[in-house]
Amino acid sequence: MNFWIRSVHWEVTKMTMSKIMTKLCRKNQEQYRLLGVCVFLSVLLVSSFTMMFFSPSIQEFLPSGGDTRKLMWLLLGVVTVGCLIFTLYGGSLFFRKKSREFGVFLALGARKKILARQLAKEVAFVVGRYILLGSFLAVPVSYLIWKIFQILIINTSQMQYQFGMTGILAGFVYAALLVCAILILGIRFVRRTDIMDILNAGRKTEMVREIKPYTGKLGMTLILAGLFLAMAVPQITVRLFHQGMPAVWQATYLLCVAGLYLVTLSAVGRSKKGRNPKKYYDNIISTNLMRFTARQTTRNMCVITLLVFVMVMAAFWGMMYYFDAMRQGSEALYDYSVHYPVKEKQIGLVETEKLAKDHGVSIISYEETDSLELIVRYTGKDMDDQKRYFDVEYEKLASFISASDFTRLSGTSVSLEEGEYQTVTASGFHETIWVGADCLNEIEHPVKGECIKPEYKGTVVSDNLAMTSEPFLFLLSDEDYKRFSDGLTDDFKERHILFNVGHAAEADSGTAESDSDAVKKGAGKCTCREGELCPATYDFADAWKSAYIERATELSNHYRLYDAREEEMALEAGEEYGYAGEIHMSADNTQLISDWKYAPFSKILMEADAMEMVAVFVVFSIYISVIALAAAGIMSYIRSITIAIDNRQLFEDLGKLGANDVYKERVIRVQLRKIFAYPTASGCVIVGVFTLFLTWFNDMNLDVFEMQMLLMEAALMAVVSVVLYGVYRKAYRRTKEIAGICPRGC
């Protein structure tokens, strides 16, 4: 009988509890919606990101073990941690709001096991529903983002959206991780035993000790010192003392974190009368409201600051990669150039003209020249295991052309005397610590053994020629060039072909000359504007590249850093040469252009190929910026609403004491401005100083391109500020509704 009574009581209690909890759930839908939105956005963003990252199209373009792949993994980690942080923040707020009703039930005698079971069902239903919704929408969202990316950046046959199971599994793994994290929060919440602590959880204050006047200044000093020590000192020590800093030196970045906390804490919890006591007393309510939750608010604002930093930094890197890829070779005088061993029978003028005619393209100008491969000994720097930099003399083969040939090819007059040389560099060249333009110590004839110690006479610019030799391509006087070419076999000669193209219709109109004559006289004009690539010539460029690759033999089948002289010396010493081996010579090999020593240059193909290589990083950088912006906006909005809910009674009391709505609105504005303005400003300042240090101390120079990027970063900061201002306005209206200042929708 007693067992039956207990069973009936259990069922009645369970039914009653279920009904009560269901009604509470309906009444407090905003709490569940808040948790659900955080879970939904987190799963949607991470799952769509992993679907794109693990897409076969992306994985094929990321070299195994390359820096780009490592950057992608780093970005994936940033996305995962960022989404996890703001979801856990939403979960902690959810359980904080549930603590009061949970405590009331415990005070009325309800069993914790029953409450925990019912709460678990509700949370599982909400979390599970939003996880499924986020996972389901991740597929169309990733596809839509990919298509937008294709339209705006690049659209080639290789960069097509492909669905991969690895991305789906990675999304489910993240969802499982999220569930476990929320479960841990729930277990911690349920294991509380002190009813009074649970009842007063929403009213707890986190008063801090009196904040010293120098706290904010100290924090700013620590931020600047951390950035300087972490970014400037390693570069300075390398250049002045030829010594790199150990990996542990990166811990100096922690000074920035400590400084950020102090600056934010000072902004949140410090106030003084100063020279305007009236302003101090007018804002005394707002200031002390922030101080009651100073630690929690400070931590929250620090996270938002870091999100703003990640957001701007990711977008900045994405833009820089994009525009840097777009400008690669853009200053080259010739649209097409190639170099290959003289002994190899390669595509020439006749074959190029035939391809041009087949594709409706004209050859505007065409030039050929030979270069000599001579043994050079030059001084460079290397680094040992202790990160000590030391001078070392290298010996390898480098390319040389005559001053008269360079003048003919470039249009730049060059005059050299015997025993002098100049270094050919690309546009925007800056000296590095590894090797300087004046590096040559000695030039040796590979066959005769004749040597000279040349005199350096500065640099000249040619983007087409600069990329054909390591460490540089050099110029010799006509007399020295003739002397070194005597007795030199074809094994030590390379041929260079350079030409421009335009539309055939322009070249054919008004002329009856032969194709060869028209080419040599430079007939024809490109219909595109000056400095603009002609999309109509893309098919020709692709066919020309394929024809060049098909004719390549073992004579030119070498990796980019291969050097015949270095291989010879390694074999003589009985050592293995690291750059030996052959490349898969096929136009379908996506890594061929970046890995091949004799890769052809074409402006239009280089732009497309470069974008294919960096497009992955560009799209993910932009996506991370969107994720970080969404996380920062959500956290700021939630924090604003939380402050309003926690202090709803205070606003009612202020009204009873005679405060009008104008005063209440000012109290709200002061708090919200700190929540939004301080993290945004701090994040923008830190990322601005960070990128300035990064670009300057990289080569101790700021060129025009870097200045343009810094200005574009400033524009990005303005866009971020405008977006967060929009979130602030929405939070401001919602906070006024909660505080009872205006009805919903005012």
Structure description:
The structure is a single chain. The chain has 746 residues and is an alpha+beta fold. It is built from 25 helices and ten strands. Helix 2 (29-53) crosses helix 5 (112-152).
Total helical segments: 25
**Would you tell me the structural class of the helices and strands?**
alpha+beta
> What coarse outline follows from CA principal-axis ratios?
elongated
Helix content, binned percent: 55-70%
> What summary fits the major beta sheet?
10 strands, mixed
Rg of Cα set: 34 Å
Average pLDDT value?
78
Q: What share of the residues does DSSP label as strand, in percent?
A: 5-15%
Distance between the termini: 61 Å
Per DSSP E runs of 2 or more residues, the count of β-strands stands at 10
Contiguous low-pLDDT stretches (5 residues minimum) are 1-12, 505-527
Any key phrases for this structure?
25 helices; ten-stranded mixed sheet; elongated; disordered N terminus; 746 residues; single chain; alpha+beta
Task: Write a compact overview of the structure shown.
The protein is of the alpha+beta class. The chain has helices spanning 2-27, 29-53, 56-61, 67-107, 112-152, 165-190, 195-199, 215-241, 254-269, 277-282, 284-292, 294-327, 349-358, 403-410, 463-466, 478-485, 504-508, 515-521, 538-551, 564-572, 592-595, 603-646, 648-656, 661-699, 704-738; strands spanning 336-341, 361-383, 389-402, 420-425, 435-444, 451-452, 455-461, 473-476, 493-503, 601-602.
